[in-house]
Amino acid sequence: MAEEAEYGGLPTDEDDEDIELIDQSGGPGLPRRGSSSRTRRLSSDYSDGGEASASATCRVVTVLFLLALAGVYQLGVKEGKVEVRTGQHAAGASDRPHKVFGGGGDAAGPAPAPEEEKETGAFTPRHLEAMRGEMQAFMAPWDFDGPEDSEDRRRSDKLVDTMARAIVTDDQRQFLMGGIGSSVMAGHDNCHYDSYQTQMERFFQPVWEAADMEFIFQNAGEGGGCGDSYENQHYCVRQNVSPNVDIVHYSWTYFEHGGAHKEHENLVRWTQMLPKQPPVHIFNTGKVPGGNGQDRQLMTQYADYGFNAFYMQTGFYNGGHPYDSEKSKGTDRFSWGYVGDGYHETTRYGEDEEDEARKTSLGVVMRNWHPGPMGFQLTSDAFTYTYTRAILRALELIEKDFDEEKDPRDKWDASERELLLKNDLPEPKYCDHDICVVDEPPGCLNYELPTYGYWGARVEDPMDDLNPYLGETQKWSVWHQNNNLWNMVGKQDTAVFKNRDDKEICRHLDACGGISAQKAEDGMVVFRLPKMEVGLVIICGCCGKKIADDLFLNNMDIEISYNTVVQDRANWDKFPNGKCVRLLKKFPTSGRESETPTGHAYLGVKVLRDMKQPVRISHVITL
Questions:
Q1: Distances (CA, A) of 60 to 28, 43, 92
Q2: Is residue 159 scored above 50 in pLDDT?
Q3: 19: part of which helix (H) or strand (E)?
Q4: 234-270: string of b/e by CB count within 10 Å (b at 16+)?
């Protein structure tokens, strides 16, 4: 695999602030959000017969959120005092025990005094500076306090809007993030437990639990062994992760070489057509590139939709550690296998690890081109910190509604979100207008693992009366690569966990897959295609980056038809990469292939003669 990252920081000013929340809802014992017994009355001063302008449930949720957020502050993300007042009784943060955020999510108790930091292992002032620098490691600045019409404020407001709607919407029980990407996203060369997504789940979970919600990060990262890249996988965002995600993450650092701006724009536009219109945030392992490149221009173009990118190595540099000076003297903390990031020798949860080999392994910044647990911890911290800032601003806006005796749900409930149509977005800057200016994201049937969302195409029942190929033999079978527990874990962690009872936490989720046939007696597979807007039909093969020639374009032992009409392979081309073939660019306009009497189009792939190797279809992509 070619390992070439896009390896600058953009500062933002942040002020420490005290946060005070007045609870007038009656104190403990009130129902939590989603309770059937919730009350709408905020105080006895309201006299609208139960139609008060805000819900006590939301009030309790807000207070609970703030209690959990105090844990984030104890890590030094903020140093302001947090107070929660209930009715006429006030209690300082030190009087109310709460869970302390940590990498393992299992520490508890009040924050240590500054003089206790060294003894307890809490974060030093130097690390606190590093935590603040993480939010400045995004390509485009976040500014939650700037002028409302500024680009950076608009970008931040999108994130605030996302958080506010999740908090206020009564029937939302999960805050859902989804990540698509390559082996970095998958967490390869580490235990899966140490990937940034699982660290973030443990780190961010207490905030959402406080609101009687669950935080889930769907990791759909897929290693390069199946032949995929960002070029084909971003078409599958609606299947690889749930279409109901609140935020989408994307990471293909070592595949892009600075040239994926078209795909980034596709993804930003497509995700705004999903129900929650999630912002897209890229994770790159390198440094923020200088200048005003294509991605930076896209962040200006799509500021209203929250598009941004985090650069891990810039996050480390922003902490103030003299990495370059060290490197000139022979110490390269970003070299493969180096232990310690200049601030710590292991992760937070590694501090409690009794196995010294495991503790050391958790201190690795970069395994190779893949980050180690320490690199992933910084990444988890950076996103959590940024999202926490957005939550805090969302709480301020919700509190303002309470103060004005308004019901926050009238503005922030998911049902009040403005519906976006394709022409509501700016004119595309780089992407193909026919592909990216659409009202629905592409459909995708992806046989690789894992996937969390909705299928686009589906295999039609051979006996269904509506199957236009009824009577044809249809015996293709689904295949998945049978990976063992230690696949892509890496030697260091394999050695550590091989004889441990908790070894299962190392297992990665990704595996190649496809629907397969090899002999003429297997017949055909028939895909019922979903509603399409363009008529684009793509199939991808498994497994290899350049497999399209052998499996499809030059394979005379198979026949492909659309609505029963055999397709001329002279009209096919490799698209969007060498793993895939584009069978149709647009809807046929005449003849049998243009007719859909059942309301669906059908794609058939038939084995004509026995083959030495099976033909495997990993993806069916439609638009």
A1: 8, 13, 17
A2: yes
A3: strand 19-23
A4: bbbbbbbbbbbbbbbbbbbbbbbeeebbbbbbbbbbb
Q: Which residue type, as a one-letter code, is found at position 586?
A: K
Q: What average pLDDT does this structure show over 538-566?
A: 98
Structure tokens at 386: 């940024």
Query: What is the crossing angle of helices 196-210 and 373-403, to 10°?
Result: 20
DSSP 295-357: HHHHHHHTGGGT-EEEEHHHHHHTTT--HHHHHHTT--TTSTT-B--SS-SS-TGGGG---HH
Mean pLDDT on 168-183: 97
Instruction: Report pLDDT digits (tens) over 524-545.
Output: 999 999 999 999 999 999 999 9
Report the DSSP pairing between strands 247-251 and 280-284. Answer: parallel
* pLDDT of 75 over the 90 cut: no
CB atoms within 10 A of CB 312: 28
Helix ranges (H only) for 195-249 are 196-210, 230-233, 237-240
Give tens-digit pLDDT for 205-223. 999 998 889 999 999 999 9
Return all residues near 450 (Cβ < 8 A) that are at least 6 apart: 218, 219, 220, 509, 510
The helix (run of H) or strand (run of E) holding residue 162 is helix 151-168
Tell me how far apart the alpha carbons of residues 124 and 116 are, in angstroms, rounded to a whole number.
10
Q: Please give the average per-residue pLDDT across 587-599, as a whole number.
A: 91
Burial class (CB in 10 A: 0-12, 13-18, 19+), 432: exposed
* Separate counts of helices (H) and strands (E) for the chain: 19, 22
- Rounded Cα distance between 466 and 596, Å, is 11
First to last CA, the chain: 30
206-215, 230-239, 371-380, 437-446, range with the lowest pLDDT:
206-215
DSSP state, residue 567: P
d(CA 555, CA 549): 8
Tell me: pLDDT of 99 over 80. Answer: no
Helix axes 373-403, 125-134, angle to 10 degrees: 70
Residue 136 above 70 pLDDT? yes
Domain ranges of the chain: 19-114+121-423, 442-622
Token duo for residue 253: 């650092």
Name the percent of the chain lying above pLDDT 70.
Answer: 79
In contact, 518 and 218? CB cutoff 8 Å = no
The alpha carbon torsion through 287, 289, 290, 294 (nearest 10 deg) reads -160
What pTM was estimated for this model as a whole? 0.83
Among residues 360, 334, 357, the alpha carbon closest in space to that of 345 is found at 360
Task: pLDDT band for 114, please (50, 70, 90 cuts).
Answer: very low
